[in-house]
Design brief:
Mean pLDDT: 87
Low-confidence stretches: none
Strand order of the largest sheet: 7-8-9-11-10
CATH superfamily of the largest domain: Nucleic acid-binding proteins
Radius of gyration: 19 Å
Helix content: 10-25%
CATH topology of the largest domain: OB fold (Dihydrolipoamide Acetyltransferase, E2P)
CATH class of the largest domain: Mainly Beta
Distance between the termini: 37 Å
Number of domains: 3
Structural class: alpha+beta
Number of strands: 14
């Protein structure tokens, strides 16, 4: 049970009489007359406007399919890579992207819960030496941190880091830097709750 009283359900909560129960392991929040729980495990659930890191898994004449660490795939139309309308009979999208390429994009539209339409970020190509995955809830928490914790992780490790709100982290650096990132990811995933995660990381980054 995460709350009791006269509230509205926001997400990941069920109601029984005046009691509200979480249906997932997560972090509870009661604000604005609403009860919500942020999941600490499970796949990324896309929301319009989210910035994500994805991997190309298929390239077709009209679009590329992208794994965004979710229960549904993302896709980007071929026109987006060329920044203009193209004739697919005269262009080969594999000139621009290949299976395994990493990219940065934003959720533009969700097609009836089956596919996620993505729009490319201005600097959409992502290059790295290692890929890590953390809970999307924790990724969102860290990215929204007012203390700029991601910049502190970059400074501490000496690695270039790109993180998506979908929990995908791409790191670029020397072997020692990647090793430090590995340890920090372990710290992030070992913390059961969101509360205290930032303070724990600050202690590690000193």
């Amino acid at each position: 049970m995460v709350a009791r009283g006269n509230y509205r359900i926001y997400s990941n909560v069920i109601k029984n009489d005046d009691k509200f129960y979480s249906i997932f392991v997560g972090s509870a929040e009661v604000t604005g007359g609403r009860v919500r729980v942020t999941r600490l495990s499970g796949p990324y659930i896309p929301k319009i406007g989210d910035q994500v890191i994805g991997m190309i898994t298929d390239v077709q004449p009209l679009a590329a399919t992208v794994d965004i660490n979710s229960y549904i795939n993302g896709f980007i139309m071929a026109n987006a890579f060329y920044k203009k309308r193209i004739d697919p009979s005269k262009r080969d999208l594999s000139e621009k992207v290949r299976v395994g390429d990493l990219l940065s994009a934003r959720v533009n539209r969700i097609e009836r819960g089956r596919d996620v339409s993505l729009s490319l970020d201005q600097r959409w190509r992502v290059d790295g030496d290692a890929i890590f995955y953390v809970s999307p809830a924790k990724a969102a928490y860290l990215l929204k941190s007012k203390s700029n914790i991601i910049s502190k992780i970059k400074a501490f490790t000496g690695a270039g880091i790109v993180m998506g709100i979908n929990g995908v982290i791409v790191a670029k650096g020397e072997k020692d830097s990647i090793g430090r990132i590995t340890e920090i990811v372990r710290v992030i995933e070992s913390q059961v709750e969101l509360n205290g995660l930032e303070d724990m990381l600050k202690g590690v980054l000193r």
